[in-house]
Design brief:
52% strand; rod-shaped; six-stranded mixed sheet; 2% helix
Length: 192
């Protein structure tokens, strides 16, 4: 038997970052035999889904999404029609954290030394990292392609660095909190 209403193909929604909202477009409905179309619903992973809901990577990524309608004639329910499912993509937010290794360095006679500060990332490379020094100067490092990178800064004494934010190749950005790192300097011993 022919259904009273047909649904067009469902468009795969654009990928979003965790905490975002899926941009959903209802499929076209072809109404046959003068049926009334009622009760349109979205379903994600088999559960009724409100399109205004923020999505998470762990709960929603790579899960099936479909659209459903009910058609009725003269007030009597006739058919439930569902689109084929499409999977959604929800990217996890990137993270950045200082490596726990010691950051005590020795400085040379000019009282200046470059120090390496290792930062570990999760997410999709390349990364953009924003951080600050103790004086409040902000630095941005771009195209960080490894999961662990080195930041090189000239020091003339002890310095405290704070990570502020990280953005990954998916365009997902997250604020970084609780990530400060103290670099301590020591002079080389010398004979007079």
């Amino acid at each position: 038997t022919q259904k009273h209403a047909k649904l067009g193909a469902l468009t795969v929604p654009a990928a979003v970052c965790e905490g975002g909202v899926l941009a959903l477009t209802a499929p076209t409905i072809t109404n046959n035999k003068g049926a009334e179309v009622t009760n349109p619903k979205w379903f994600l992973d088999g559960n009724e889904f409100d399109p205004a809901t923020s999505v998470t990577h762990d709960e929603h990524n790579d899960k099936p999404l479909y659209y459903q309608i009910t058609s009725s004639c003269n007030g009597k329910e006739r058919d439930i029609t569902t689109t084929p499912a499409v999977n959604v993509t929800v990217h996890a937010l990137p993270t950045a954290a200082f490596d726990a290794a010691s950051s005590t360095i020795c400085i040379d006679e000019q009282d200046e030394e470059l120090t390496n500060i290792k930062v570990n990332f999760t997410g999709a490379a390349p990364f953009e990292l924003t951080y600050q020094d103790e004086a409040g100067s902000t630095y941005v490092e771009n195209n960080l392609t490894a999961s662990a990178v080195l930041l090189n800064q000239a020091l003339d004494g002890d310095e405290l660095y704070t990570l502020k934010s990280v953005t990954d190749a998916n365009g997902c950005t997250s604020s970084v909190t609780g990530q400060t790192h103290q670099v301590n300097t020591k002079k080389h011993a010398s004979l007079d």
